[in-house]
Write a structure and sequence with these properties.
single chain; alpha/beta; N-utilizing Substance Protein B Homolog, Chain A; Alpha-Beta Plaits; Rossmann fold; 4-stranded antiparallel β-sheet; 45% helix; globular
Length: 457
Amino acid sequence: MNRRPPPAGRTNQRNTPPRHRPDAAASPLPAGSLGEALSVASDALKAVLEGFALNDGLAGLWQAYPELSPATRGAVQDLLYGTLRDFGRGQAILARLLKTPLAETRITALLLVALHRLEVRPDTAHTVVDQTVEAASRLAGGGFKGLVNGVLRNALRTWPQIVAALDEQEVSRWRHPAWWIASVRRNWPQDWPSILGANNAHPPMSLRINRLRGSAVAYRSTLESAGMAFEDLDEYALRLMAPCPVAQLPGYSEGLVTVQDWGAQQAAGLLDLHDGQRVLDACAAPGGKTGAIAESAKVELLALELEPARAQRVRDTLVRLGLSAEVRTVDCRDTEAWWDGRPFDRILADVPCSASGVARRHPDIKWLRRPEDVVRFATIQAEILEALWITLAPGGKMLYLTCSLFPEENSAQLAGFAARHRDCVRAPFPDGSIERQLLPSSQHDGFYFALLEKTVR
């Protein structure tokens, strides 16, 4: 997956995880209780409200709460991701229940998590209220206990009226920012409701079977023996009907299988790989597509990644799969720092983007992204294309890939590049198309693909 810079729009964004410090005056909530999960989830949500990317917030969160049981961690993650997917709705609900916004971000976050839980689990309403009030009594000196109790009980009394009003507002109904809704509706006039609906759903869990470590038939048989139902997507790809922790996947640690969205899996096949080629994976982390390339053909493979920690994830992925490639930590735009002058036969340019096609996996981006971020990413993408094009051999092919739904990062980007380069041809895919846009669905996330071929002069 491509590297994604932190979303713009907040002045206090940083690349490092926030240092979570649980309220020093608060005594711990009972281990394994709903109150504990609500409190910890609100701690992570507070970081997102302050401008941190969700992945950074979670990294700091698990360090701050090392004593959490696996079950509580799972509950925290469900609460957090669900609250962020429904954030536009939660904000609107809270605005109706409060006369003025709260200055205490942690209490705001706690109320948003609790309101999400009330909507998705109305059967546990009284427990949610009691446990949230208990959590509030141990936060911010306990001064917000009465307010939290009043807000949540008022929500229970007026819930039908609240829901009716929210369904008339686009942001709360579709759970996306207004600018995002407008862009998707404009660019996908027939599909925009299904796109927004898919972005609010839980993502599918798809697997790629390592063809170098055993047969696809044998691995499917292993899953059946383990009682794990699945749907076939292609010869080496399948979707689990019930997602599970990676550690529970048969043969995962032995490299028999990789968790990778089916849309992302298609990259290696579209790259038109053959044995003996020299191949570049220009934005490689976390290494799923790097591994797929190495599994597909015997090639000389170079993988580049800007951030050291993410480059190490690529190496770890290759080791687990029993594959080899050269991995370098470098900015792919700085060709003087890494290119030895030998051209590549194939280049995978999985460029940084808005990630608008994978918002259900990264629900914070819907609320941290701004329209100007799309322009910023488009500028970075153009710089990467220009830098990589000179390293492509005549007759070679570059697969341009984003996980975006916005044309500025996709079709418009490629049209501009092709217009600037007379030696660039839009090579067709096997079905004859010159670009492929996958929209989020129950089977895959949203991706854009285009294949560029350098003509031989």
